[in-house]
Amino acid sequence: MTDQRSASQTPTGGAAHQAVDTAMGEPRVAGWDALIDSLRSLPGRMLAQLPEAMRQDARVQQEVARLALEAFTSGAIDALGGDGDHPAFLPTIGQLLNVGQPNADTIYRSARITPGGTYRIRGQRGSLRMANIGQVVPRSAETGLGRTYLDINALDTDAEGHLDVLLSPTRPKDHAGDWWELRPEATRLMVRLVSCDWTKERSPTLSIERIDRPVGRSRPSAAALERELRALPAFVGFMGLMFVDHVEQLRREGYVNRFKVFDLTDGGGLVGQFYYEGAYELEGDEALIVESKVPERCLYRSLILTNELYETTDWYNNHSSLNDAQAPADKDGVLRIVVSAKDPGVPNWLDTAGYPRGAIQGRWAECDSQPIPQVRKVPVDRVRDYLPRETPAVTPQQRQKILRERRAAMQQRPLW
User: Fold this and answer.
1) Among the three residues 193, 214, 241, which one is the final residue of a domain in this structure?
2) End residue of a domain, out of 199, 225, 241
3) Do both 214 and 288 map to the same domain?
4) Fewer beta carbons within 10 Å, N or C terminal of the chain?
5) Which residues contact 250 (CB under 8 A, 6 or more apart)?
C-alpha cells in the first residue's frame, strides 16, 4: 500500500521523506557501505574454511549465519558503548553472543580504556571463587608472558563488602588504598566472573570511571563516529573467523574422542588455568565416558560441549556443562562424566543436544595437577556397566527438575 501521508505528517519533514523515496540517489553515510559489504561476505568466508560436506549443509549454513550475527552483535555493542574516556563494563561473549567458545560458568564483560588514563573501579566484591580483571595489551606491545590480572577477591573491602581500587600507570604519592598498575599500552579491561554454585554465589557489582578527566560527554564528532563504523569490519571478521574451523582442525589432527592440551597461554587464556579438549563423534546409541583422577587441590574445574562451529552448546536449556559443584567425583577419587544424546539416567551427564559432532573442553584452574582424562566409547544403554555400582539413578522427572533449576539460576545471574 502506498503511504498517503503528507510531508507535514512526516516526523522529520518533507525533505527526509523525499530522500527516502529516492531509490537511486539516496545520500551515503561514510563507512556504512564498507561495513555492509564486509557483513555480506562474512558467512561465505567462514564457510570456505569448512569441509565441503559442511559447506553444502543447509543447517550448517544457517548456523554459520548465526555465528556471524553473534560476532557482529558483540562488535556492535562495543562500537556503541565502548569509550575509554567514559568507560563501562559491557557484555562481550556468552549465551547469546556465543563466539570464541564461552565457558558456561563465566560472565564476560569488558571496558575500553585510554592508554595513560587513570581509572577507579568501585563496587561489591561478591562471593565467587574466581573473579578477576585482565588488561588487554596489543601483542606487539606485550613485554611479558600472558596478561596482567587483578584478583578481585584480593582487594580490601569495608564491613559491607565494598571495594575501591585505583588503576593508573604510576601510583599517586598520596594514594594509600588499593592500586593496580596499568600497562602503558593497555586498551581494554576484561572481566571474568566464574560461578560454580549458581544459586548461592554472588557476583561482584562493578563500576568504572576515568578520574583524570571530567565526567561530561559532549556530542561526538562525525570523524569519531565514522571511525567506529570503519573499525567494525575487522573486529567482526576476526571474531567470526577465529574458531569456526577449530573442531575440524582437531579432527584433522586425529583428536576424535580423545584429548589434547589446548595451550592458551599467549592467546587470552586465564592465567593459572589449564585447558584440554578434543573433537567428539557419536551416533545416537553411543556414549562417551570421560574419566580422570581429580586433583587434590583445585580451585575450579569444568567440562563443556561445543558444536562443530565451536559455539558452546546451549547450557541454559540443556544439561551440557558441568563444574565441580555440579559433578562430584566418585568414592575412588575418579571423575566420570557421560557424554551422549540420550539421557543415560546418571547425575554426571553432558547432553550433546542434537549435535552428533562437536568438541569437549575441560578446565583445571589453580590445581596441583592437570590430568588429561581418558575417553571410552560404549553403547549408551550399557553405560552403567562401566560406572560404580553406587552411581545414583536420575529419572526423567528428576532431570526436568534439574534443568528447570539450572535455567532459573542462570537467568538470575547478572548477565548484562
Assistant:
1) 241
2) 241
3) no
4) N
5) 256, 260, 277, 278, 279, 359
Sheet of 205-210, strands arranged across = 178-181, 162-168, 119-124, 205-210
Same domain as 274, residue 161: no
Sign of the dihedral defined by the CA atoms of residues 230, 103, 414, 408, in that order: positive
Same domain, 252 and 225: no
Q: Is 118 in the same domain as 168?
A: yes
Q: Residue 246 corresponds to which amino acid?
A: H
Counting the structural domains of the chain, the total is: 2
User: pLDDT of the chain along its 416 residues, tens only?
Assistant: 433 333 334 344 444 444 444 446 789 999 999 999 999 999 999 999 999 999 999 999 999 999 999 999 999 999 999 999 999 999 999 999 999 999 999 999 999 999 999 999 999 999 999 999 999 987 665 554 445 889 999 999 999 999 999 999 999 999 999 999 999 889 999 999 999 999 999 999 999 999 999 999 999 999 999 999 999 999 999 999 999 999 999 999 999 999 999 887 665 566 678 999 999 999 999 999 999 999 999 999 999 999 999 999 999 999 999 999 999 999 999 999 999 999 999 999 999 999 999 999 999 999 999 999 999 999 999 999 999 999 999 999 999 999 999 999 999 998 77
pTM above 0.70, yes or no: yes
CATH number at residue 51: 2.60.120
Cα distances (angstroms) measured from residue 85 to each of 147, 175, 212 = 22, 21, 9
Give yes or no for a contact between 188 and 138, defined as CB atoms under 8 angstroms apart: no
Residue written as grid cell 563444574: 323
Asked if 42 and 180 sit in the same domain, the reply is yes
CATH of the domain at 295: 2.60.120.1600
Tell me the residue range of the domain where 228 lies: 33-241
Tell me how far apart the alpha carbons of residues 410 and 412 are, in angstroms, rounded to a whole number. 5
